[in-house]
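Re: [ENG-882] Designed sequences occasionally contain unexpected residues at chain ends

Forwarding the minimal case from QA. Structure tokens:
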């Protein structure tokens, strides 16, 4: 077991982790940690991720955090990190936290676009950390191929889904906004900040790979060749249209919702 622990620590935290001391503790012997029920656990990992646990309560004043509320990785440390990041993102992107002057009423589309752009840019430092987490998971699960490609794709898919949620929560009023061939006039502005985010993430991920001891056993990931790089670029480019279409649909749906409520009034 000592050997396996040491190997996994090096894999996850690189070479210096090999010099640490190992302390092994049987948590099942801890009366306040392990109950009788814990000693007869279910055979499979329980279902977590009930979306109701992720809803802000009391008009955005109460947030539930913790691994059990996570959209993925529930019951694991990964879930704890994901839920903490979700609350942090919500607080940062909350228009109220940017100051009441940020929004001049519910129909201030310019302010909504600015808030969304600020949110997208503010995610940049987290994206590399998310990429590293996905990469470590693939390494820990003994995957040997396309590690960079998979981890980057997972990172971007997670990012897109969070971005869609952010977008749908902003109080756009697109009822007076033009739509040309199905595309809302606001869509290009909403998409603009993503170009830099993509490029930066890819360069940071490649720089990280190059410096990673754990990846030195995987030459294709450590120093990706031209062909692999273009495969990665193609893969990420293929993930974009789905987000692009969905975000456009969110903006158009907002126009429909506002017109509907205007008709009702
Ligand atoms: C024995 C064991 C082994 C595990 N092994 C792994 C593993 O190998 N890999 C993995 O990914 N995950 C593992 N997990 C799961 C992982 O530890 C948890 O999913 C993760 O720690 C949850 O983090 P959290 O921040 O959601 O909650 P916690 O880490 O439980 O943090 C909650 C905190 O709130 C504090 N608290 C509670 N009530 C109050 C109160 N009223 N007022 C103030 N503070 C309060 C608690 O003291 C605690 O510090 C293991 C869990 C256990 C128990």
């Amino acid at each position: 077991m000592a050997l396996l622990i040491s190997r996994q620590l090096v894999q996850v935290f690189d070479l210096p982790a090999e010099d640490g001391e190992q302390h092994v503790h049987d948590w099942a012997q801890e009366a306040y940690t392990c109950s009788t029920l814990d000693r007869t656990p279910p055979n499979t990992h329980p279902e977590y991720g009930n979306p109701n646990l992720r809803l802000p309560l009391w008009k955005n004043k109460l947030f539930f955090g913790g691994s059990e509320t996570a959209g993925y990785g529930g019951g694991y440390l990964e879930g704890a990190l994901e839920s903490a990041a979700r609350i942090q993102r919500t607080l940062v992107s909350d228009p109220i936290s940017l100051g009441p002057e940020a929004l001049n009423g519910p129909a201030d589309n310019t302010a909504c676009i600015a808030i969304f752009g600020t949110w997208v840019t503010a995610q940049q430092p987290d994206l590399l950390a998310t990429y590293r987490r996905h990469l470590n998971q693939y390494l820990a699960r003994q995957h040997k191929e396309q590690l960079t490609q998979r981890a980057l794709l997972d990172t971007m898919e997670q990012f897109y889904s969070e971005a869609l949620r952010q977008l749908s929560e902003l109080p756009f009023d697109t009822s007076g906004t033009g739509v040309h061939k199905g595309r809302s006039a606001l869509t290009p502005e909403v998409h603009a900040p993503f170009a830099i985010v993509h490029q930066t993430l890819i360069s940071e991920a490649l720089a990280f790979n190059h410096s990673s001891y754990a990846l030195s056993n995987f030459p294709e990931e450590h120093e990706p060749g031209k062909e692999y790089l273009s495969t990665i670029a193609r893969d990420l480019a293929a993930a974009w249209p789905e987000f692009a279409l969905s975000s456009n649909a969110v903006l158009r749906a907002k126009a429909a919702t506002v017109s509907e409520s205007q008709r009702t009034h």
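QA comment: On inspection the terminal residues look reasonable. The two ends are 68 Å apart (CA to CA). Proposing we downgrade this to a documentation issue.
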